[in-house]
Design a protein that fits this description.
Elements lengths: L10 E4 L6 E2 L4 H9 L7 H4 L4 H11 L4 H16 L3 E2 L6 H7 L3 E5 L4 H8 L11 E3 L11 H9 L10 E5 L2 H10 L2 E5 L16 E2 L5 H8 L1
Parallel strand pairs: 1-4, 1-6, 4-5, 6-7, 7-8
Antiparallel strand pairs: 2-3
């Protein structure tokens, strides 16, 4: 039985990579590309940090190199998106949420360009049903700006923090939820280090097979 704090929800915000699709992004490779422009601290420690935090450090230390790093990251993200796959039954999510009068959105740290490569793929046409924000429209997670913007987008439909929740697979998603002050549900598509989560997930979803039951429970 779900906790009371997960009742009366009206908006679900989803992460994209490893939550709705398997993008095969090599995050270690992305970190390595950013670190090529940095010469501070322990490389081992820096490799544990989110890409967004590394980019913030780079912008502060070597602002002239931030564009170069972003261009390289964008190239890699675009190449990974060509091999992406749908996580089983993720494409049924919009129909289920429509049936229960939910609002729904995606907040991703991808660029708008890499998102376009997904949207142009006929296999991912279900993504076009979501309201989507990328890092081109909001600061990268774990900054809460994207979540706050999405809630504001639906404010005329009665959406507030208390009736919203975020579903994602990583500690970055968990920490963005914590920073925004909304509930977090962990989609456990891969093993992650839960010690880095600033907020404990209310529950863990391991597949989308019972998603409709989950929606009924939180409505």
């Amino acid at each position: 039985m779900l906790k009371n704090k997960l009742k009366n929800k009206k908006l679900i915000i989803f992460d994209l990579d490893d939550t709705l699709i398997i993008s095969h992004i090599n995050y270690q490779r992305l970190r390595e590309e950013v670190l090529k422009f940095l010469d501070i601290g322990s490389k081992d420690e820096l490799m544990k940090k989110p890409i967004s935090e590394l980019l913030n450090i780079l912008e502060a230390e070597n602002p002239s190199d931030i564009i170069k790093a972003l261009v390289k990251i964008k190239e890699l993200e675009n190449s990974y998106s060509n091999n992406a796959e749908i996580i089983e039954l993720a494409d049924t999510i919009p129909e289920i949420l429509n049936n229960y009068d939910f609002f729904y959105a995606i907040l991703t740290n991808n660029t708008r360009d890499s998102l376009k490569s997904y949207l142009n793929n006929p296999s991912f046409k279900f993504l076009k049903k979501f309201y989507i924000l990328t890092r081109d429209e909001a600061k990268m997670k774990p900054d809460p700006e994207g979540i706050i913007k999405i809630i504001h987008k639906f404010k005329n439909q009665g959406i507030i923090k208390e009736n919203s929740l975020y579903i994602g697979d990583s500690f970055i998603d968990a920490n963005a939820s914590f920073n925004a002050g909304i509930n977090f549900v962990h989609f456990h598509s891969r093993d992650v280090d839960l010690s880095q989560f600033r907020i404990k997930p209310e529950i863990v979803l391991r597949t989308w097979k019972n998603f409709e039951n989950f929606v009924v429970d939180i409505k």
